[in-house]
Amino acid sequence: MSKRPPSLSAQAADMAMQMALRQIDFTAPPRVAVPAPKPQNTEDTLALKRRDWLLDVQECQRALSPYASGLLTAEQLSGEDFLHSFYAAGRPVLIKGMMTDWPALTRWTPDYLAETIGEAVIEYQGGRAGAQDYELKKEKHRKRAPFRQFIAAVRAGGNDAYLTASNSATNAPALAPLQADLGPIDAYLTRAPGMLWIGGAGAFTPLHFDLTNNLLAQVTGTKRVILIPPSQTKRLAHKSHVFSDVRDVTDEARLKLYPQARDVLRYDVVLTPGDLLFIPIGWWHQVRSESFSTMLTYTGFHWPNMGHEGYPAG
Ligand SMILES: O=C(O)CCC(=O)C(=O)O
């Protein structure tokens, strides 16, 4: 039975809600103002050390079995299997073969996108080259341009301009013509619209975690994702909101500053067109586009995804 697509204003409201749930935009006032627990005395410090000890021991135990650890690749995973083995378990998985009938997989070249959206003005994250804090200071980096001009900029490559999930709500009306090229992923997701990412080779999202479970759907080009389990947090200089001061665990200069991040347990994965990557809440990740890339992210799962409630935002 075909469902009527939601209206554009409903889509924009839905995307704004999804962004709020991810709580990546931390310049917005926190919805739940729980003060960050600061270790004030030796009792608190000892409690933290004991928690880190337990996380390490549990990680070592999981490493005993490939059923319990590692990043698995699955082919056309059913909703039941996804729920029981990955969503409920809080375990990442790379899933292939779920997007084979999406027209976008063959259509979404830079030329096609530029022709389809043309001169419509869109919002993107700009002025990122040379800035370190473009995720932390998202608002400062919001820019606008005719879509065709934006595509020309990302085609040239680099990290300066990137259309990200934080631009989704604003861009919903302008980018609506692209919706027809996407398909549903009914096994895992409601029909809530995804959030679009468009960037060039070199676009980089620094190390952070999300406050929701998140499904990445790669459409065009390739992206290299590094996933790090929550058990490794003590090695990642977690000071600001959901971000790691390490920023990039492949950057020797950063590793010199944060040597404890060298030995971090990590899983590297390259996303190619048609791949889905499930990133559970709290898993650290950094993402680098290896070519012109388009991708959608979804948080509208069939199962509860409200872990952000009560996050001590600080
Ligand atoms: O693809 C990217 O650049 C970042 C995606 C991401 O980190 C996220 O959706 O949380």
List descriptors.
25% helix; 8 helices; four-stranded antiparallel sheet; 314 residues; globular; disordered N terminus; alpha+beta; Jelly Rolls; seven-stranded mixed sheet; binds 2-oxoglutaric acid; single chain
Count every beta strand, where a strand is a DSSP E run of 2 or more residues. Answer: 15
The side-by-side strand order for the widest beta sheet comes to 1-2-13-8-15-6-5
Q: What's the shape? A: globular
Task: Give helix and strand order, one letter per element, not per position.
Answer: HHEHEHHEEHEHEEEEEEHEEEE
Structural class: alpha+beta
**What ligand molecules are bound, each kind once?**
2-oxoglutaric acid
Present the secondary structure layout.
Blueprint: H1 8-22, H2 42-62, E1 72-75, H3 79-87, E2 93-96, H4 104-107, H5 110-117, E3 121-125, E4 142-146, H6 147-155, E5 162-163, H7 168-175, E6 195-199, E7 204-208, E8 214-220, E9 223-228, E10 238-240, E11 243-244, H8 252-257, E12 267-271, E13 276-279, E14 284-289, E15 293-298
Parallel strand pairs: 1-2
Antiparallel strand pairs: 2-13, 3-4, 5-6, 6-15, 7-14, 8-13, 8-15, 9-12, 9-14, 10-11
Helix pairs in contact: 1-7, 5-6
Short précis:
With 314 residues, the protein is of the alpha+beta class. Helix content is 25%, strand content 22%.
Question: What this model shows, in words?
Answer:
Helix 5 runs antiparallel to helix 6. It is globular and about 60 Å long. The protein has a 7-stranded mixed β-sheet. The chain has a domain at 80-298: Sandwich (Jelly Rolls). The model is unreliable at 1-6 and 23-33 (pLDDT under 50). The protein is 25% helix and 22% strand. The protein has helices spanning 8-22, 42-62, 79-87, 104-107, 110-117, 147-155, 168-175, 252-257, and strands at 72-75, 93-96, 121-125, 142-146, 162-163, 195-199, 204-208, 214-220, 223-228, 238-240, 243-244, 267-271, 276-279, 284-289, 293-298. It starts with 7 loop residues before the first helix and ends in a 16-residue tail after the last strand. It is α+β, with helices and mostly antiparallel strands and 314 residues long. The structure holds 2-oxoglutaric acid (AKG). The site of 2-oxoglutaric acid has 10 residues, from strand 14 and strand 15. Residues 161-314 form the JmjC domain. This is Cupin-like domain-containing protein. It comes from Sphingobium rhizovicinum.
